[in-house]
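User: I'll paste a sequence; please echo it back and then give the predicted structure.

Assistant: Echoing your sequence first, then the prediction.
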Amino acid sequence: MKAFVFLVVHQDCLLGRLYLKLSFFLYFANFGVKTVLFRKKEPILGTVILTDKCNLSCKHCSVNNIIAVIYPYVQIISEMKQLFDMGVRILFFCGGETFMWHDGEKTLRDLVIEAKEMGFLIVNTVTNGTFPIDLPEADLILLSLDGDKKKHNEIRGDTYDQIMKNIENATADNICFYMAINKINQGTIEDVCVAAKRLKNVRAVSFNFHTPYPGTKELALTREEKKNCCDTITRMMDNGVPVFNLKSAFPYLIDNRFPTPCYQCVVMESGKLSVCGRCIDVPGLCEKCGYFFVAEYTLLFSGNIRIIAEMLKTYLKYI
């Protein structure tokens, strides 16, 4: 009897995920066709900054603990509704550290559930992984892992072992490693890939190149270093590592020859709406953008056929 109940529940979960994937595919396809054909600039991906408060002080980060404010629940819900009304259907919660967010008894889980009920098709959150990971309602939890134990700890402090423990004890297999490649950790891409393939609660790994915010320029990679990194990632993908990036975008990322900003992505922080990301206000930074998703989305919505095909295949596989 227990086995029968398990099978029924498991089947319902699978059917639910298939329905959500189909809904996302249809919405995304319709949005993409209209965007490409009519050169529209409406957003589909939105990020809400919950707080800039963080328990870490990472070497490459320039947006933590500037005002150390946790934004209230009512404000966050209002911003979510504003993004939804704009047509956003892929929602990210970012910080600071998202698991530090709370308002009374409200936690990050309440926001994810609210976002799902509001109608967002994909709801993800970004975390540094130092807090217990109990968020099965999220489609993906992008967890920052910046190399092997030595290099990660050099960048983020002595956190690697705690993160590994939290991953092992996570309540769902919806974790995706999120590595920002820089001068310090560029030689440890393979280590992160191997960990992503080995750990049962990790679904994939996603990469970015370091974007040289003010005060972090010394961490930026050269063109040759970017090429070597992309070669390593490609080799890992060919060896079966689940990488949540698009190989066809690598040449554009190496030479920074993708259009910026990405009008299909917006960020909301304390009532301020920014196109693409918070970095748009820094003069000259767009030309040095290292965000893989920006390259992928701008190329996608400019009608690049190879990007379109690979994007659909990748999203349907890992979300």
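The two ends are 31 Å apart (CA to CA). The first strand starts at residue 45 and ends at 49.
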